[in-house]
Amino acid sequence: MSQEDNRKHVLELMNQKDKIEDEIKQLTSILTQNGVGMNDPLVDPEGYPINSIDVYQVRNARHRIICLQNDHKNIMKQIENGLQGYYSTSSTSNMQVTPMDTDRPEIVVHKTPFA
C-alpha cells in the first residue's frame, strides 16, 4: 500500500470514528433524558418498570452504545496500525543514508578567548 493510499485509508477511518462518536453522544442524550445511565436499574424494588422511564428506548440505546463502543475500539486499533504504517513508510522513504567518513580531518576549535 502506498503512502498516499495509507493516508486516505486512515482519514476514512477517522471519519468513521467521528460518526460513531456522534452517534454515541446522541444515544447518551436519550439516556440522560430518561434520567438513567448505562447501569441504572429500569425497574423499581418490586420488579415493575419505572413509569418515568421509556424502558424500550433505554434498552435499545444501551445496546447500541455497547455495540458502538466495541466498533470504536476496533476502529481505533485500525487507525493506530494505519498511522504506524504511514509513518514507518514515510521515515524509510525520506531517510538518506550517508556513510561515515573516517578519513576526514578534524576541525580544530580554539578555546582561548579572543578579547
From TrEMBL:
Keywords: Proteasome. One of its GO terms (biological process) is proteasome regulatory particle assembly. It holds the Pfam family Nas2_N. The keyword Membrane does not apply. Residues 11-88 form the Nas2 N-terminal domain. The keyword Cell membrane does not apply. Transmembrane segments: none annotated. GO terms for cellular component: cytoplasm; nucleus; proteasome complex. This is 26S proteasome non-ATPase regulatory subunit 9. It comes from Anoplophora glabripennis (Asian longhorn beetle). The gene is PSMD9.
